[in-house]
Amino acid sequence: MSDGMIALFEGSHFWRVPEDVEIDVGPTIPIPLPEKYRNDTEKYSADVHLTKLSSGGYVPTGYTAGIPFPKPLSGDPNLIGQKIFWDSYYRYQPRVQAAPSYSYSLDQAGNMTQTSEATEVNSQLAFLSDPDFPEKVRDAGSLYVAKFQEQIAPEQSKYSTLLDLIPADPTQLDELYEYVPTLRRSLRLSQAARCAPVFGSDYLIDDENEGPPGLPQLYKIEYLGEKQILALVHATPGAFDSAGTSSQLNKKYFYRGSRGFIPFPKPAAGKWELRDCYVVSMERLPQFAGGYCYSRRVMYIDKENYFGGAQLDLFDPAGQLYKFQAIFSYPVPIPGTHDVAELSAGPNVSILVNFKDEHVTIEPSLPSCVNSECERNGYLDTTRYASPEGLMKIVQ
């Protein structure tokens, strides 16, 4: 288990798993990378190299598509952590994925309330490995990924939207925007907003990528070794057919959240499995650490598919365990192929346990559309869902 999961089972903090919790462990089921992504790895990976910046961080150069470093443990041992991180940063994601998502808040008094409903659209615009799309979207400019979240409930927060535009050049700063419906306009956010909460939840903007944070060139990244991690990544699809009630997740699949106890998957939600993971520690370089929200994040990156979000430990500026994230999910078929993938905006339940503030945010995402399935809803339109211009179309 990760440090955060151990803390929940030990009961060493305010939050813990239910007293009658049961985990059923089954065989490890493969989640291989998609065929075209593997082919692109073979075709392009020899051209990728790590380049050290004057700031002290590293970035890949020569990257086109696929896994940038398919043999991350080879070569300079001081760079193993960097290679594994960039493999996770550029892990396979489809051209577009979109899903309705919900947010629940669980406070220290045991009150659990559904606080919001949103539409999440993730667009990958460069370095693509999908058979039906070019490697770079023609009208996407110099962007790598666009993450769009529009709140549609409650009514007083309707249309509030966050847009994170991540450049293809990792040395460039993200563009962060927020659409404020009361002002009828969008605002450009500063980089300090990375530590701002998303729609009042325990998630910060820098927590929204299921593992890798923004501005990765500002980090010292170290390889801590390999570990088997218990994860629920082949959950029962029915567990994500609905978000639940206004005050709890679906009781058929999840234990009840209450004072001191987090909602947690029941055996009906599926069998857990042991996943072989690389363990990577990330700390801001000293010149960039001041005022940042975390002193360290520890990622458990799946060795087979480089998904880094199944479990994540976050530490406060004093070095104490601050938050723990767990994502329960199942792989989704990629249209037009025989492949499946773990998606960022796909059917899952994400739980962020805030040990320090004795608070929990739970975010169920319902079944999503992927690639061509999203066309009927217009999610392939980059001007609407992957540009600041699109924010001004929200209330039209």
Structural account:
It is a single chain. The protein has 396 residues and is mainly beta. It has one domain (3-33, 88-391): Clam (outer membrane lipoprotein receptor (LolB), chain A), CATH 2.50.20. The chain has 6 helices and 18 strands. It has helices at 3-10, 35-44, 80-89, 286-289, 382-385, 388-391, and strands at 49-52, 58-61, 96-106, 112-124, 143-153, 161-167, 175-180, 185-189, 219-231, 273-284, 296-302, 311-315, 321-329, 332-333, 340-341, 348-354, 359-365, 369-370. Strands 3, 4, 5, 6, 7, 8, 9, 10, 11, 12, 13, 16, 17 and 18 form a 14-stranded antiparallel beta sheet that branches. A two-stranded antiparallel sheet has the order 1-2. A two-stranded antiparallel ribbon has the order 14-15. β5 and β6 form a beta hairpin. The longest helix has 10 residues, at 35-44. The model has no long low-confidence stretch (mean pLDDT 93).
